[in-house]
Amino acid sequence: MRLAIATRLAILPLAALATPVLADPGLPDEAQVSAALDAYPAVEAAQQRVSAARSGARARAASPHDFVITGSYTRRTIDLEGDFDEFNADLMRGIRLPGKARLDREIGVHLVDAAENMAEDTRHQAALVLAQHWWDWLSASGAARVDQQAVMNLETALAAVERRVELGDAAPLEADQAEAALGAARVRAAQSAGEANLARTRLATHFPALALPEEAPDIPMPAVEPGELERYSGLVVSNSHEIAAAEAQSRAYEASAARVRLDRVADPSVGIRVFSERGGAETGAGLVFSMPFGGSRRGAQADQAAAEASAAMAEAQMARFAVQETASADLASAQFRIAAWERARESLRAQMAVLTRMRRGHQLGEIDLADLLLAERMTHDAFSMEVDARAEAQRAITQIRIDSHELWLRD
């Protein structure tokens, strides 16, 4: 009578097909994620650019003109009269013509708005990087667990076959077949374990502030409420900081173009002058005024600013197109990834049914060990496919939630 392969030969327990979990699927703690994003260098740099924009706005609101003091001292010698100390001094400052100060303040407000939205978008991109590395780790770790379970199962199978050979109930060829299958499984397990360790190293290197467990969490079943993905897709556009930043930049360029048009008439400078001549015999004070007259250069600068404003408007429209594409792609990706996982799950169930029959046939002596090992390998592949499809579905769900700002970016 042929020895049946042990029940443990199943690659993973059927518990893997349990009811989906409704909580946040296998994600790190939100407070830890927030701290990790705050410490991300690109996010820190973006926050410093916000501070720089605010300082620039204060400088624009103040005035582009400084007080300028000029003066001279001379010692004059006049025949038959003697030597005299003489001096004069001017204190002047440019004055912004009407409308320019308002536009300067407006430009500063728009640039701060753009910097703040770019900082939020940088945080958004950092969150996507974190999610990418996180699911790389969980996916690789899930595959490693499947491969390690296959090794344990085949070790049990080899021991059983070797015992049968000792009892004369099986040919040595069967032991060779089981050992060859075990060797191949060990190679796959070593490779997948190395890939899981590499993925964890990359995650830890990019986000050292994120406390990682020693073992990656299991990949839960994807679970979304009906209509939830469509709601997320709509929020991708309405909550986009990329669009807001581009539109703020466009408004800043538009205000700058208006400011340069006003600069075709230069700002005058006014001030006071005091002087002393002939050793103080003559003194006086008065007002001074200067007015630059611009030429073709100022007209060319106004044309340049107008063209840059038009380009910024087009770029803002392109940013909206890009985000709309992201929203549609996120939705399509999540939908087909979830569908693919459901098909992989169905395929796994069918393969498990085939394996059960193959085991029974082997027990009855109707199925050779080679055929059973092939069925075990196909079941292993089905489990690997299901784990990969489950991870990709969770990755797609996480991405659309981040892009909609419903995950990690709600504040």
Could you describe the 3D structure shown?
The chain is of the alpha+beta class. It has 8 helices and 4 strands. α2 packs antiparallel against α3, α3 packs antiparallel against α6 and α7 packs antiparallel against α8. Belongs to the outer membrane factor (OMF) (TC 1.B.17) family. This is TolC family protein.
CATH topology of the domain at 7-70 and 98-136 and 200-267 and 301-403: Outer membrane efflux proteins (OEP)
Structural class given helices, strands, pairing? alpha+beta
Please, what is the average pLDDT?
Answer: 87
The total count of strands amounts to 4
For the record, the CATH class of the domain at 7-70 and 98-136 and 200-267 and 301-403 is Mainly Alpha
Question: Strand-residue fraction?
Answer: 5-15%
What would a concise description of this structure say?
Residues 331-358 form a coiled coil. The chain is α+β, with helices and mostly antiparallel strands and 411 residues long. The protein has helices spanning 30-38, 41-62, 100-166, 172-206, 228-238, 241-262, 296-363, 369-403, and strands spanning 67-78, 82-94, 269-277, 282-290.
